[in-house]
Amino acid sequence: MRLFLAILLCKLARAALRLLGRGGTALPGSLALKLCPDIVARLSRPLKTIMVTGTNGKTTTCRMIERMLGDAGFDCMANRSGPNLERGIAADLCANAGLTGRPRKRVAVIECDEAAFKRVCGEMKPAAVVVTNIFRDQLDRYGEVTHTLESIRIGLERAGGALVCLNADDSLVASLAPDAADRVRFFGIDVPLGEASAVSDAPRCIICGAEYEYKYHTFAHLGGFCCPKCGYSRTEPEVAVVGVDSLGPEGSVAEIRVDGEIYTAPVSLPGAYNLYNAAAAVAGVTALGVGAESAIKSLAHIESGFGRMERFELGEAKVTMVLVKNPAGCDRALEYLAGVPEAAAVFCLNDGTADGTDVSWIWDAGFERLFSGGQRREIIVSGTRADDMRLRLKYAGADDGDVRTVRGTAELADAIAALRGQVCVMPTYTAMLPLRAELASRVGRKEFWK
Ligand SMILES: [Zn+2]
Predict the structure, then answer these.
(1) Spacing, Cα 216 to ligand 1 middle (Å)
(2) Beta 107-111 vs 76-78: how paired, if at all?
């Protein structure tokens, strides 16, 4: 009875919010959890679930997994609307259930916040878990990276017998392996992609504290790490990007090895970091029994998710929007931007709770790479902390005459619409929501939660 009422109330609340022209799953999910605290466990029991957690790449990895499972003939539900905390997941499970709790779709792809993971994972008992990476993210909310790592470790313990797909190149994530022993499947990138960044989130061995040595670097602290003192080092992954044939603004082509077999993989999302997401997704679905060839084929048909590298045209501006929220994610977006020197750049920095109220992270991101060798481009700064952003760019080497400050969402949309050619817009979370709604109304695109 409680379950019935909780599902009913959740559905009604969601419908009412839609009538009011609002999306959102937080309130309906909270109501359902209040009435039936174990609703997540009860509704997910009949489901075969694959969960994705980690700091960066969760959303894109989930979209890839969803596509791969769909192409392989599995009809799946996913928590696509954004809030990947327990209440949002509860609301999406209610939406997937009839009033008796019977699921409509029996396979679930669930993106889960690292902090909520230890609780949700224990309740959902997923068949497989993918851990993408661990970076410093919104320190005021999550604490140190080791705290995040511990939260994931506890979640995996509570999940019981789940297959665990871990990033072999991330010394933090890979250290979770001994706890899952024979159920681990590693993914990674076998070739160098970049330089070490000046600030590493994990410079020292998680086991003995000695400084790591690297055979090669991919991103930030990811790569071929090895501890010279205790010998803790990267494990050869089952799913690995072994070569990169091309990288372009529309996508890339890579060679991916899956359990000893090498496949050529066109990936329809740009940015070398999407190769990590691709490897993670392939590891996840092949752990569930999807054929490698089928999974690789799906990579050519991935559409970008909510705000994570989204493209549209506005007037004569070809806009790419990338959500940024921490130094590592920002570095990846900057690396993409540095590869498109003719593009104008728009940075929108807010300091809302969902962004992390401490914006000092911008000093850890490598904005310098945009101005190396005297490169210049048109730049707009906006958001509640536009002045901090402007100062950061000045220190990074921007010519102050190239930087404009634009305040207000409508004014910013006007300014973007007046640009020509490639434009890369990089907002933080609470800056993205109103800007995206404003741009969507001009472009004529559906709101994201529909
Ligand atoms: Zn060590």
Answers:
(1) 18
(2) parallel
- Find the 138 Cα to ligand 1 centroid distance in Å: 27
* 212 CA distance to ligand 1 middle (Å): 8
Q: How confident is the model at residue 372 (pLDDT cuts 50, 70, 90)?
A: confident
The pLDDT, as a whole number, for residue 331 is 84
Which uninterrupted H or E stretch holds 255?
A: strand 251-258
Structural domains of the chain in order of their starting residue, each with its CATH number = 2-301 (3.40.1190.10), 308-443 (3.90.190.20)
Q: Which amino acid is at 132?
A: T
Coil, strand, or helix at residue 316?
coil
Higher-pLDDT residue of 361, 48: 48
Q: How many Å lie between the centroid of ligand 1 and the Cα of residue 204?
A: 8
The single-letter DSSP state of residue 419 is -
Contact 53, 83 (CB under 8 A): no
Where are the extended beta strands (E) located within 69-183? 76-78, 107-111, 128-131, 163-167
User: What does pTM read for this prediction?
Assistant: 0.76
CA distances from 51 to 190, 210, 292 (A): 25, 33, 19
Contacts 24+ apart (CB under 8 A), 335-341: 335/194, 335/271, 335/272, 335/273, 335/369, 336/270, 336/271, 336/424, 337/370, 337/424, 337/426, 338/369, 338/370, 338/372, 338/375, 339/247, 339/249, 340/249, 340/422, 340/424, 341/375, 341/377
Write the DSSP string, 110-142.
EE--HHHHHHHHHHH--SEEEE-------HHHH
pLDDT tens track for 223-272? 999 999 999 999 999 999 999 998 876 789 999 999 999 999 999 887 78
Give CA–CA dist 329/139, Å, rounded. Answer: 14
Instruction: Report how far ligand 1's centroid is from the alpha carbon of 143 (Å).
Output: 23
pLDDT over threshold 60, residue 138:
no
The mean predicted confidence, pLDDT, of the chain is: 89
More confident residue, 375 or 157: 157
- Please state, as a whole number, how many other Cβ atoms lie within 10 Å of the Cβ of residue 15: 11
Q: How confident is the model at residue 168 (pLDDT cuts 50, 70, 90)?
A: very high
Residue positions counted in the chain: 450
